Amino acid sequence: MSNGSLHDPSPPAASTSELVSQAAAQISTLVRDELALAKLELAEKGKRAGIGGGLVGGAGVLGLYGLGLLLALAVVLLDLVWPLWLALLVVLVVVLAAAGIAAVLGKQKLKAAVPPVPSAAVASTQADVKTVKAAVKEGRSS
User: Fold this and answer.
1) Contact, 124 vs 37, CB < 8 A?
2) CA–CA dist 137, 140 (Å, integer)
3) d(CA 136, CA 132)
C-alpha cells in the first residue's frame, strides 16, 4: 500500500448525469425559495396595505361628515343673500362639478397605476438567472 492511494487529495470526478441531477435539484430548491420569498413579500405588503386602507377609509368617513357640515354652512350663508332654493342650487352645482373633476382625475390615475410586484423577489431571481447563465457560459468555455 502506498501513501498516495490512501491520501488522494483530489475528490472523485462526478459523472455528467450526477452533475445534471445535482443542478436540477439545486434549481428546484432555488425556485421554491424564490417563490417563498415572493409570497412572504406580498403578504407583508398586503398587510401594510390593509392597515393603511382601513385608516384611509376611517379618515374618509370623518371627512365626509366634515364636508357635509361645510356644505350646510355654505347653504346657510348663501341663504342670507339669495333665496334658499338658489343657494341650494349653487352649492349642488359646485359639488357635482367637483365630483366630475375628481372622477376624471381618478380614472387617469388608475390607468397610470402599476400592478403590485414583489420587487425584491424579482431582483433576486434576475440575479440568480444571471449567475446561472454566467456559470453555464463559463462551463462551456472550459
Assistant:
1) yes
2) 5
3) 6
47-65 pLDDT tens trace = 888 999 999 999 999 999 9
DSSP-assigned letter for residue 113: P
**Measured distance CA(97)–CA(84) in Å, rounded:** 20
Where are the domains positioned within the chain? 41-115
* First and final C-alpha spacing in the chain: 35
Q: Which of 34, 4, 18 is closest to 120 using CA atoms? A: 34
Which range is least confidently modeled, 2-6, 90-94, 120-124, 125-129?
2-6
pLDDT at 115 over 80: no
C-alpha distance from residue 138 to each of 48, 124, 125 (Å): 43, 21, 20
pTM over 0.85: no
Q: Which amino acid is at 10?
A: S
